[in-house]
Amino acid sequence: MPTIKSFSNFFSQTDSRILPYIKTVTDYLTQNYNAKCYVVGGAVRDRILGRECKDYDIECFNISIDDFETAMDHLGAQGVGKSFFVYKYHDLDISLPRTEKKISKGHRGFEVSLAVKEKEASKRRDFTINALMYDIQNEQILDFWHGLEDLEHKVLRVVDENSFVEDSLRVLRAMQLASRFGFKVEKSSCKLCQSIALDDLPKERIFIEFEKMFMATYLHYGLYYLFALGIGQQLLSEHMEKKTFIVLSKSLQQSQKNFVEKLRPYYFLFICKKYFSMDIKDILDRLGAPNSYYKKVVIPPTPTDITLSFIAELSLKEGIVEYVGNYHADVITIAKKLDVWNKPFDRGVTPTELMREGFSGKALGDELDRRTKEKIKNLKEK
């Protein structure tokens, strides 16, 4: 029997644009087909944690496949994974409960069957905190795997070892979930992750999970489980000594308070790259990172001695707010002193002014460069 927890105000914090869609779907399925509808997965977890959730998954029991497809057609829902019984209705994912069995290599190599019971369906989930179900009609949370307890103790625990090992992506999910929520991976679950080969994962899938970690609040957790779960060794051919980890972990924690939100995806790799043995370009290649990462991360590290001239030269084209090393306290102080946080360095002269003085072509560019260097030189002398 599951643990049952009443939760009458579950949707009180739901986006007002999403709530009508949930009501439309569940009312139609319950009234016309006597279906039983549950919110499942991360939305339940996030609601209990008091976090905002925009991605809702609705799982529908007590309805046949034919009736379900007819209902989806009536609602105008689009099939996005029909072999997995999944439809998209506005911002909702609507699906039938299912079980999955690995039959071939790769993240798509699963045989899918319809599940009948709630516990059977929840067993396919990766971690207990993601296996919680919210009974919409009865306003109750169903917990078959002690997920509520693990949420309270901030623990990631595998639901079912046999099904977990069939999807290697779940090892990366453990890393990114730990870094997003500040949770620890339970000991036996950690060992299980270490035993799973990651050589069947396409780069696109790898990068999606890594980027979730890069965007997370607890980057030092992501760093720890990058190595503790064997991901760094398998995917990046990297390992890290304990002393190095401690130094880097502290740097990540201390720096994060100064992160600029739009650059958040890039800070982790920029800060970590000098501690990795592999060249950062090779790491980005292995992760399948988009071009924006190469532009932001593949640049010289911030020097130990941060000078006025360094910041001035760095800001000749744009403000320091665009520089991924802008989390450093000295960078912030000097950038604001030179008034280059949100705008380029003032060279003291513009191309238009030089044209008025008679400069043109290459001579104009050379003179602009000369005067810029002269102004930066004068900064050093102050």
Provide an overview of this structure.
The structure is a single chain. By secondary structure, the protein is α+β, with helices and mostly antiparallel strands. The model has no long low-confidence stretch (mean pLDDT 93). Helix 7 runs parallel beside helix 9 and helix 10 packs antiparallel against helix 12. The chain folds into three domains: 167 residues, Beta Polymerase, domain 2 (2-Layer Sandwich); 134 residues, no CATH class; 31 residues. The strands form three sheets. The protein has an eight-stranded mixed β-sheet. Strand 7 and strand 8 form a beta hairpin. The protein contains 19 helices and twelve strands.
User: Helicity range of the residues?
Assistant: 40-55%
Shape: elongated
Helix/strand class:
alpha+beta
CATH architecture of the largest domain: 2-Layer Sandwich
Largest sheet: 8 strands, mixed
| Strand proportion | 5-15%
Strand order of the largest sheet: 1-10-9-2-3-6-5-4
Q: Poorly predicted ranges (pLDDT <50, ≥5 residues)?
A: none
CATH topology of the largest domain: Beta Polymerase, domain 2
Distance between the amino and carboxyl termini? 75 Å
Quaternary organisation of the protein chains: single chain
The radius of gyration over CA amounts to 26 Å
Q: Any idea of the CATH class of the largest domain?
A: Alpha Beta
Mean residue pLDDT: 93
Tally the beta strands. Answer: 12
CATH superfamily of the largest domain: Beta Polymerase, domain 2
In total, how many domains does the architecture comprise? 3
Question: What is the helix tally?
Answer: 19
